[in-house]
Amino acid sequence: MHRECAQCHNTFEITQDDLEFYDKISPVIAGVKQGIPLPTLCALCRMQRRLAHRNTRHLHHSSSALTGEPCITMYDPLAGLTVYTQKEWWSDSWDPHMYGRPIDFSLPFFPQFVSMRKTVPRFNVYNRESENSEFVNYAPHNKNCYLIFGSWFNQDCLYGDTILESRNCIDCFCLEKSELSYEQVDCDRSYNCAHCQACSESSDSVFCFDCRGVRNCIGCWNLRNRENCIFNEPASKEEISTLRKQFSSWIFLQEFRTEFQRRKTERAIHKATTGANNENCTGDFLFQCKDVTFCFTVYRGQDIRYSSRVADQKDTADVEGAGNGELLYESMSTDFSYGCVGCTTCENLHNCFYCDLCFNCNDCFGCISLRRKQYCILNVQYTKEEYERTVSQLIALMRSTGEWCEFLPVTLSPFCYNETVANEHFPFTKEAVLQRKWQWKDPDPKQYMPQTFSTPDAISDVPDKISVEILGCGKCTKNYKITPQELSFYKEHRISVPRNCPDCRHMDRLNLRNPRKLWDRKCSQCERRISTSYAPDRPEIVYCEECYLMEVY
Q1: Is the pLDDT at 553 greater than 90, yes or no?
Q2: What is the pLDDT of residues 55-114, one digit of tens each?
Q3: Residue 86, pLDDT score
Q4: Is 300 a domain residue?
Q5: Which domain holds residue 472?
Q6: What confidence score (pLDDT) does residue 296 get?
Q7: What angle do CA 424, 425, 428 make, to 5 degrees?
Q8: Are 379 and 112 contacting, i.e. CB atoms less than 8 angstroms apart?
Q9: In the listed set 306, 324, 359, which residue is the last one of a domain according to the structure?
Q10: Per-residue pLDDT reduced to its tens digit, 319-344
Q11: Structural domain total, the chain
Q12: Which of 94, 215, 241, 332 has fewest C-beta within 10 Å?
């Protein structure tokens, strides 16, 4: 079956497997299966819609609506939301039921939900159980961290995204259990490495790609358990030491980066799908998965479709960011949950629908900021019988308005589009955003002051006063700063000071990854047809898994 996407107008397919899967995960309420309607958007547009409701990186100065205490928040003060500090929100000093309201069955549900969302208090950022880490978001259990996002259990880490159990790391993306890492992408168990991508169990190496167990290597690719190499050739320790010292020069660093990227493109073997131990799967960055369809970054998943950044999930579709759950649909950042639809930033939910910032709740519909509740609708308490009867009526209303099992539209996002994760994966111009009647945030002129300092080429010549100077990004001209903590790191490891702002550096790292799309092309070795995130017109050498394993190992 083919349908036209209501947003991009491209044709997309709904397979028989999709239909059977939707029937399988359709929720049951009061003994009646509430079938999931066919999606109106294609998989990528559905993904974009969800991501347009998540702002991870853009922080604002504001104050608590409860006490007036200054705070850092992910919500623009102009958005008109009620924001409490993290400590205040988790306290028992306020009652979310005070903001409840009855359902108006003469109106669509989504506008009623969004109207209540403006009044119910929200926490400023998600940095629960963190210490000295005010400028982080979706980053619980961290200590002494600054501008890291979607990360947890770290210490002394700066400017990163998706960092796990690491220490003293700067400017990294998708890094796990590492220390003293700089500008790493998709690496784990690394020590004292910089500018590496897709490397594991490596140490004291620079500019390596897809290496395992290497030590003292520079500019290498596809190596396994090697040491003392430059461009995949044996080298003396003295040669490596001499070359590594030259990276303290910004000019030399850029020249070497260009040369390494050329060699990586022309000579390195790229695996069609990043991952391991998968069965009957399509997507990228899949690990220990079975029956996973068009998914990206999934760990230990089974029977999952059209989702990304999930772990330990089963029977789930159209989910962004979730761990340890089952039977989720069109939800985002919902962990340890079962049988939920349309939920956002929740934990430990069971049979909940269109809930936001709810924790440890069962059988709730359209609720916000509830904890340990059951049988609530729009934050109003019901009996079990009243709840089941009212929810059945509400779903019937949502079917008639086309809302049931659709995620909230982008027009109802609390964030401007260019503040959200959607803009990272689906970048739009201001004109395109406004044409769709989505929100756009213009740059703040105060963040684009003239640069007051010219950074020396060598890190040894950079004075401590750079920490109080105004610097301008070499790409977008936005102001940024070098903190004393990171300057100490750069000098200790002879790393040249970055010339771009953290946001542009993040996008540079993100762009090292392939897009969340799949193409058919041929294996560069055996010419077998493969599904891969490498477009057919890209110049890289792309192997199917069998040829890759034979060549690299």
Answers
A1: no
A2: 999 999 999 999 999 999 999 999 999 999 999 999 999 999 999 999 999 999 999 999
A3: 93
A4: yes
A5: 445-502
A6: 97
A7: 75
A8: no
A9: 306
A10: 999 999 999 999 999 999 999 999 99
A11: 3
A12: 241
CB 145 within 8 A of CB 151: yes
260 and 280 inside one domain: no
Report the C-alpha gap between 286 and 251 in whole angstroms: 37
156: which 2 tokens?
Answer: 């002394």
Global pTM value: 0.95
The pLDDT of residue 234 is 98
What secondary structure does DSSP assign to 133-196, as a single string? Answer: --S-BS--SEES-EEEES-BSEES-EEEEEEES-BS-EEEEEEES-BS-BS-EEEES-BS-BS-
- Neighbour count for residue 144 (Cβ, 10 Å): 16
pLDDT (tens digit, 9 = 90+) per residue, 191-200?
Answer: 999 999 999 9
CA distance 504 to 292: 32
What are the angstrom distances between the C-alpha of 162 and each of 137, 172, 533?
Answer: 11, 8, 21
Report which secondary-structure segment, H or E, holds 543. Answer: strand 541-543
In the chain, how long is the greatest CA-to-CA distance?
Answer: 78
331 close to 344: Cβ distance less than 8 angstroms: yes
Residue 126: helix, strand or coil by DSSP?
Answer: coil
Last residue of a domain, one of 246, 271, 296: 271
Q: How many Cα atoms are found within 13 Å in the side-chain-facing hemisphere of 219? A: 22
* Of the candidates 302, 337, 425, 326, the residue with the CA atom closest to the CA atom of residue 293: 302
| Per-residue tokens: 486 | 């990171």
Q: What confidence score (pLDDT) does residue 544 get?
A: 96
